[in-house]
Write a structure and sequence with these properties.
4 helices; 86% helix; elongated
Length: 169
């Protein structure tokens, strides 16, 4: 597998593009969450499910804030430059922003599934499945791959240092 290091400018461009890819979907979800409240069927939900939907809406607002913050920060603080701090800060916000998004999607999966099936059990299963699946894809898989790559780098470094140590003797 080939990898190539990016300059700071390239890293920042990738971060902003990644934000642009995720944000429309999150904003569309937000719109649907807002519209749901004004639909006639929403009134038929019990109070608990309405509160779960409200929590999901608020979590989505947190996600939107985290996903939009890198562009706002860049425009206001480092408009004509890119720093390690900006890249790290923006990367962290993108990763952090996915946490409330996972939670929002999972809670709304619960509400929708319960409304469709009229079963709390099915709603809980749908919410837990959504949470588990998205957490696996967005966090577990990347962390496993990151650890594998780090282990390979350390192994390669050890092999190279052993080779040079043998040659110097």
């Amino acid at each position: 597998m080939r990898t190539e290091k990016l300059a700071l400018k390239g890293m920042m461009r990738n971060i902003l593009e990644e934000s642009r890819m995720v944000l429309p979907g999150v904003q569309a979800l937000f719109g649907f969450q807002l519209i749901a409240v004004f639909n006639s069927g929403f009134g038929e939900l019990d109070v608990f499910d309405k509160e779960v939907h409200l929590i999901a809406l608020l979590l989505n607002i947190l996600a939107i804030g985290c996903l939009m913050a890198p562009a706002s920060y860049h425009r206001q603080v480092e408009r004509d430059s890119v720093s390690d701090h900006l890249v790290n800060f923006s990367s962290q916000l993108l990763c952090i922003g996915l946490i409330p998004l996972v939670m929002s999607l999972s809670l709304d999966a619960y509400v929708v599934c319960k409304a469709i099936t009229d079963s709390t059990h099915h709603g809980i299963v749908a919410g837990l499945f959504s949470f588990s699946f998205l957490t696996l894809l967005w966090y577990a898989v990347p962390q496993i791959e990151r650890k594998k790559r780090k282990a390979r780098q350390e192994e390669n470094h050890k092999v190279l240092s052993d080779i040079f140590e043998v040659q110097s003797n």
